[in-house]
Write a structure and sequence with these properties.
Shape: globular
Largest sheet: 2 strands, antiparallel
Helix content: 55-70%
CATH architecture: Up-down Bundle
CATH topology: Four Helix Bundle (Hemerythrin (Met), subunit A)
Structural class: mainly alpha
Oligomer: single chain
Number of strands: 2
Number of helices: 9
């Protein structure tokens, strides 16, 4: 297992927009707007969620930890804000917005000149309690990777009924 390393974390964070742009741009609406049923999210919804995180989560909470520590708890994060915020926007609009916000946030992160002392500073999450900056930044990376995986899973399941017996060899179908 790797230990947190900011430079390596940024390697993932800076690539996520390009991965999503390459993967999702120009696809048919059925790939973009379909979900897994029920209250699950489509790729469109997931990109909107990532945008909301860029605006209200990672950098905002980093600054709270650095400036206030455990004296000022984080604001609760609205995991469903994208349903309102994305209305009227195309997927390409969302992908461009995400790329712009992510670039800006990585610039902010780099300008903070964080060190090991900073990484161990703590903040208060409304549901988890005390968390370190290292945990927050590590979670940002894993959050990106989780949603890339989620998008792949949602899209794969669009053909769940079409793959016949091969489904038993494709773990994504039983997730």
């Amino acid at each position: 297992m790797n230990k947190f390393n900011l430079k390596e974390a940024i390697e993932i964070l800076e690539r996520t927009p390009a991965v999503l742009i390459s993967f999702l741009s120009g696809l048919s609406d059925r790939w973009i707007y379909n979900n897994e049923g029920g209250e699950s999210w489509s790729p469109y919804d997931i990109v909107g969620h990532l945008i909301h995180g860029e605006k209200k989560d990672w950098i905002e909470r980093t600054k709270i930890i650095l400036e206030h520590g455990e004296e000022k708890p984080f604001e609760p994060f609205d995991r469903f804000a994208q349903f309102k915020d994305s209305k009227g926007k195309t997927l390409n609009d969302l992908l461009k917005e995400f790329a712009k916000l992510r670039t800006e946030n990585i610039e902010v992160l780099n300008k903070l000149n964080l060190n090991e002392i900073d990484f161990n500073k703590k903040g208060i999450h409304p549901g988890l309690g005390s968390v370190t900056l290292k945990q927050l930044l590590s979670t940002w990376v894993v959050h990106d990777l989780s949603h890339i995986r989620q998008i792949s899973r949602v899209m794969a399941k669009q053909y769940k009924d079409e793959i016949g017996p091969w489904g038993r060899y494709l773990p994504v179908m039983s997730e």
